[in-house]
Amino acid sequence: MDPERPFVALAGFLVEDAPSDIDAETFYRCWTFAEAYFKAFQRAPSDRAVRTVSTLENSGKTARLDDGTQLLHRRVADRFQLCLVWQAAGDACALRYVEA
Asked: Whole-model pTM?
């Protein structure tokens, strides 16, 4: 994660009016979410979903967005961030990250 990358400009690809104070951790959390979302549903996530994800922590616990999308976000291997995204009724597919 290069802290010198132009995160504000890059975040503009994810949301309109990207925050001018976005840091590397938040940017990569949003980027990996958007990437996983696109792979799962073949469309980009809404601005609202990306902004919500920007407020979450990489806790290794599942989170549910307003639209029912569920995600598991975790930093692994020091700086690499992993995001899994799915939709299921209720908590039919609850996942958790387990340290090896």
From this structure: 0.80
